[in-house]
Amino acid sequence: MQWIRDYTPKPERRRLYRQAMTITLLGNLILAVGKGIAAHLSGSVALYADAANSTSDALYSLLMVLGLWVAQQPPDLSHPQGHSRFEPLVGLMVSLAMAFAGYEAAQAAVGRFLSGGLAVEPGLPTLVLLASAALKAGMYLAIRRIAQSLFSPALDVTARDNLSDIFTSLAALAGMLGSTLIHPLADPIAGFLVALWIFKAVFETVRENLSYLTGGGASPEMLEEIARVASSIHGVEGVHQVITEYVGPQMLADLHINVDGAISLFAAHYIADQVREALEALPEVDRTYVHVEPLMENGE
What we know:
The chain is mainly alpha-helical. It has 2 domains: 11-213, Cation efflux protein transmembrane domain (Alpha-lytic protease prodomain-like); 220-295, Cation efflux protein, cytoplasmic domain (Alpha-Beta Plaits). It is built from 8 helices and 3 strands. It has helices at residues 11-42, 45-71, 86-114, 124-150, 153-181, 186-213, 220-231, 265-280; strands at 238-246, 251-260, 285-295. It has a 3-stranded mixed sheet with strand order 1-2-3. α1 packs antiparallel against α2. The longest helix has 32 residues, at 11-42. The two termini are 36 Å apart. The mean pLDDT is 82.
């Protein structure tokens, strides 16, 4: 009796995950320290908001390393279908860390605004923010590429966070320069805009990862693709039911196919196996259950 699903190790997948985790952890640690020092020396609340964001990024990087390590563990008796559901859970933890950063940024911005603002001299903060935007751009491109190849919601959230960090750094830079060239209140206003951008990213990532955790289904386009692939298998006379749900970053597909009712059980079973293998070859599909039904004389 088999109690655990078949499992084939994927060394390349693990290598890509390790690469993404290394880039994220080291990059965020460097930025958190650099921005924190620059914010302390300059007194810029916009830079402080950006430093708070990078600090939360460094913290979620540690959570991400742990969570993704668990998600990659092979199936066992406690989780016979695998541990992939832990991955969108990591995405939610990342979102919570981002929300805390947004709260810290908004709180600092409001406090500085009520106190009348402060003109921030350019110099070191300018260099730090430009370097931060450049580094985050590199991290965004690298993590997005890996996330797309792995269909990883946790890494997709991380890539989005890197993208938002580019804009928050540029907003902090604009606020800092504006506090000197325009008005001291430009700095806390920019800090507040940074917080709003963070909250927007949090809302989007929470909504997406909750869908993965609560059994959300595939898009209409993906359902059509599943039906098309199944129908392309020789011997399949029709596909009349396709139901999907996410089980972590990938989905489970449950479908009913029609075959000639006069063929042997062995032949029908072979067709079902061909359908299952073709669908599980799709990057978005984790596993497939195929139900075989005879094609009636009226074609139904």
